[in-house]
Every structure is written in C-alpha cells, then in structure tokens.
Protein 1
Amino acid sequence: MTEDSIRKYATLMKELELTGLEVNEDGCTVRLERGQANAVVTPVAVSPEKDTDTAPADDTGDILTSPMVGVFYTSPAENAEPYVTEGKKVRKGDVLCLIEAMKLMNEITAEYDGIVEEVLERNASVVGFGTPLFRIRRV
C-alpha cells in the first residue's frame, strides 16, 4: 500500500467523521484511528414541547446525543444486562452504551452524575451524529 493510498483513506475518514478504518489492499492490512476510542457525549438542554403528542411526559433533564454515526447498543453483548435502564443513577464516567462505527466499539460515557430518565433509542438501531440517546437529570 502506498503513502498516497493511506492519505486518501485518512482524508475519507475526516470527511465522513469516522474514528477508525481498516483497509485490506494488495495483501496489506492497514488500520487507521483518530481521536479517542472513548467518546464523551455533550449534553444539550431540552426545550419543552408541550403542544406535541411526542413530547415526553416529564421533560426534565439534559438530552445526551450521539457523537458519531453507527449502531447503538445498550449492552456489551447480545444476552447481557443493559449498561443503564430508566431510573438508574449514573456517575460521571459510567458507560451508558456502545456505538459501533466501522467495526470499532466506542463507549459512550456519562459526563456528569445523574439519573437516567429515559432511554430514547432502541437497542441495535442505527443512529446519526446528534441523534438523541438518553435524557439524564443531573443530581
């Protein structure tokens, strides 16, 4: 694999906002990674939506959104207990879920202590950048 090929893949990673990429070319395997494997989610304040049928019954808390495109997993394995459930208290740094992007499992962690008010995505669903994942009330 040539340096130009590697640069081409690195540019593609940046354009698509990928955290990792593995390429098999001409009998050579190259794995590129950028950023941290453990992503931290930035909270976004919830705006009340009292006039819509889709608004949560209790709209307290911050919405934590996906920092990347990938597949959302609530647990570390198919038959394992979920990392968090509604009503569970979490501490800063606790793993909330995994997002698989380009065969890399990225841990999404709590940015602050709180209580999970609502899990907003289904297990194994595809999420995009900025997709709401959890509603967490600070404690």
Protein 2
Amino acid sequence: MFDGEGVPADDAMVEIWQNDQKTQRFGRYGTGTDKENRFLFQTTKPESVDGAAPFLSVVLFMRGLLLHLYTRIYFSDEEALNAKDEVLLTVPQDRRQTLIAQKKGQVYTFNIYVQGENETVFFDI
C-alpha cells in the first residue's frame, strides 16, 4: 500500500471481500500493524462465477481520503478468463496490470498505489 509519494502507508486499512457462491469471506487489515506496513491476507483463491475471472473486492481507507476507494484483485494465472472479463475489459489496456496480482510460488503479490505513475485503477460504485 503506497501513498501518493510512493511511500508505504502506515495508516491505511484494507478490506477484502470474496464471494464465489461457494466461499464468502471478509478480511480487514491495517498496514500499521506490520513493521513493513504491508497488508497480508490468507484465503483461498475465488472460483469463476458465470465465466467471469475470479477476483477479490477491495475497499481502501486511509488518511486524506474523504471517501473510501474500491478496486479489485485479479490473478495473473487466469489469463484466459481475465481476457474476457467484462469488468476488466472496461479498464484501458495499459492500466489493467494495476489490478492483477502476480503469482510467486503459492503466494500472490499485489501493490496498491493511491496516486502516481503506477496508480491502481479504482472503481465508482
């Protein structure tokens, strides 16, 4: 979780929501609770629903935001489903990578940038 200056934010709260018809999960994590200001979640990867790419819904709260932000986390090993996901296709091609967690071993890594060159795509609800 990085602020507008690219510095890890120590006062953000990240929530994830997962609902793939089999699993309904919720998690909340404050970045200031980790000495490296990370957020770490352990969950199962969601399944595809109605042919859409699996994703986690994310809600972000932090200083300087009057309203919380909404985004999604998609998965790098779901290329075929990502390529036809209706929501992901609404995002300009050059910005889609900001929504895709990269798989390394059994772990997915996903960074959120509030502003700047690598700014994460946020959605209006």
Protein 3
Amino acid sequence: MTQNNYKTQSEKYELVSKQHGGYYRHNFTDYAYLYNLYFPPEDVLTNFKDQIHDIILNYPVAQDALAGLVGKIIGQPAERIVVGNGAAELIKIVSGHISDKLIVPVPSFNEYANAAPSGKVVEFPLEFPSFKLDINKFAAEAIRVKADVAVVVTPNNPTSLLVSKHDLIRLAKKLETNNCMLIIDESFLDFAENPDLISMEQEIEQHQNVTIFKSMSKAYGICGLRLGYMLTANSQFAEAVRNGVHIWNINGFAEEFLRLLPNYKQELIASCKQVRTDRDSLYKKLCAIEGMTAFKPDANFIFCRLPDYAQSAPEITKKLFIEHNMYIKDCAGKTQPDSDRYLRIASRTETENCKLVEALTQVMDLTNRQA
C-alpha cells in the first residue's frame, strides 16, 4: 500500500501536477497521459509472470540483438535501428549531444527543446490559429538558421494534427541539399487512419537525411517498459546515436515484450481501431459544447480551445481534478499564443469519455455563473 502525503484533494492535485508518472498510485482518472488502453493483451502480462525469474535474474541482450527484434516487428534490417529506453533517451542523445542547431515547430513535444543545450534550439511557430505546419516556410527557416536537425512530430503533440507523407517528402528534399537531418516522430501515427500508408518507414531507404523516432509507449500501451526506437538508412547518423547508448540500456521485461509482440499484430490493429472509434466520439461531444473549439484529431487525444466564458485552462484543469477526480492536461506550458486557453484531453473508453465531457461542462458552467 502506498503512503500518500496529502490530506485534501487540493493537496493531491498539487502533488500529482508536479509528477511525471506513477499516477496509478493516486486513484484518479487519467486523461493526461497518452497511451492505448486496449493493448497489450492479458496474455502478454501472464507471460511476464511465467518468465519473471529468468527475466529478473539474468542480463538482457544488448543493442545489436534488440535492433534485430525491432527489425522483425517493423520489417527493417537491424543496422538501420537503434533501440532506446523510451524515445526520450534517443531524443536526449540527438538534441543534447549530436545536433549543433535543432529546429522544431511549436507547440510540440517539449523534450526536443528541453534536452538541447542553451542556444542550440530554434522554435518555429505553427500557423495560428490553425496550427498547421507550412512546409515551405519551415524549410526556409531551417536553412536560414543553418539547422543540422529539423524535427516534425506527426501527429503532433499537443495539436493531434497530422503532416501528410507528401509534405514530409517535399520537406526532406528541401533540407537534403543543406545537410539537414529530418527527424519524423511517428509516436502517435498508429492512431491515424491507414497508418501503414502514411508512415515514412517504408520510404526510409530513399532518403538519407530522414530519421524516424517512435515511442512504443503510446500505441503499445507499455509506458512502464520504456521502449522506443530510431530508424534511418543513414549509417553514419545511426552509428552516432548508437554510440550514445550504453550496453544494457533496455531491461529484460522490455526485451521479452519485443520477443512476444510479433504474435499480436492483429490484436494491435484491432486495439488502435477501437481507440479511433472512442476518440471520434469524444471529438463530437467536445464540439457540441457551446463555445468550445475542438481540432479534428489524428492521434488518440483532442486539442481544444476553451470557450471565452470559461476560466483559464489551468483553473479549469484544477477544478476538474478537485471536484471530479479527473486529470486533463492544460497547455499553459506550451509555446503558442493564448496557451492558457487550450486543453489536451486523452481519449479513454466511451463510458469514461462521456463522464469527462459531463464533468467538464459542469465545471465550465459553474465558473461561468460565478464570474
């Protein structure tokens, strides 16, 4: 039993809002973290229990064997792959040690900028208020600032908006002549329609200046295992990143998961389809709230702007937690105009999503009446 050092719901909120995980220990409904609730199947966890002695008591395999396991899953040769302790480990290596000048559209996943040394990052504002990425302007700015790494997260976090494969190929070609590596973060791509058709993975051989990052926490629902990978046909870049990881960067449970995963391809596809169904229903419900602007999502979460009558996103987030024990993500910490008017809401089950919309409407109406 976990001993929690809070006596009131307000104190609980203050503690939780400063954490980066461990939410299951605090008994609330998590609409903040972004993962697949329908995967992995229970069989996978049962296998862990059956193998627990061997997994804990023995050294796991190292990078070459891990790359082969991921390669089997995605149909790519091992030499193109580096496996990370979550994508965050690989981001830290590239942003913090390899890149001399990195450019990233904002708002986006903060870690790309946070992991870089001071003065080594250029933030490129997305078009406001659509938050669409203008490929031509982004490429021009990357070339102007002499960036050697450009990052595009697709679908983006927090906007949940996709950048088309056509646009990514155009961008890669524009950057190639200026010796700029394009990192395409596809961590949420499995939740988009027809992910196999829009992923750049099968195009990787044709673009020496493209690298794909993927966190496996999201689609595979394994946040606690800490798994992610990098894919590139650029052997020099792959080697540079590979040299940045230590010999046993992946634990035995994560290794075992990679060995089991090829047996569950159909279950993964079905789980992502269910996520899309729940997400689309949540999107319609949020659109129906008077004054709310919800952006049509390509990932498993919804980006939305609060109605003008509502209090700020941080205030709404706090009230929702205190009064309904539900935790969503405000975007006040993101680099964007009016950031304190935006929320990011992860989709859960249909039943949970209905409860969330009802509670959110109640909290906003309450604050409106009190204004």
Protein 4
Amino acid sequence: MSDLLALVVEDDYDIATIFAQALKAGGFKAQIAQSGEQALAYLADTAPDIVVLDMHLPEVSGLDLLRRLRTEARFAHTRVLVATADPRIADAVEHSADLVLIKPITFSQMRDLAKRLRSAPAR
C-alpha cells in the first residue's frame, strides 16, 4: 500500500507536533504547516489524504483553507478533520468537514483515529 499523506495545519507548535507524531504512529506520513500561507504552499504541490485543520491561523484562516479544499477538484478525496476548541466554529463547519474534533485531543485519540481512517475507504 502506498504511503498515505497527512498535513497538520496548526499554529501551536506543541499541538502540531503531537498531532503529526500521532498520525505517523497511525500509519501516515505527516507534514506540519504552522500558518495558512505555509499550508497553501504545501497544497500547491500536494493533495494529502488527510488534513487536520485548526481554524484560528495566522495569515490565511482555517475557514478559507477549508473552502479551498472543498472547491478544488484535486482535493475531492482529501478528508478534512477540523480541530478546534471553539464549539461555535465546530457547529459552523460541521457540514464542510469530514469530522470535527474538539480540543483538547490526545495523542492516543489522534493515533487511533488515524488507524481507523487508514483502513476506511475514502469518500
């Protein structure tokens, strides 16, 4: 099976590192973008299998990134997991995201989710 790619878009370094390590433990190759601009640069060349997306980002908002991921055909099979501490944002994006995760999210929760997503067919 080819390597599945995950992009963690999170401006908090510690959270981004925990998510990336958990995704790796779940069988993904993981990259980190700590701003919306970094995410756009990565997404210009790559269509990851999963994007773990924080909503409060510097430069380009998570909501703008989510819209782009949902409107460009090359991301049709990319699963978007919104990770937010704000339940109001969770409600606002629940129909655009494949899954909404409310922070705090533990390493083991993200790892176990990655394992389930790795074995589940893409949409």
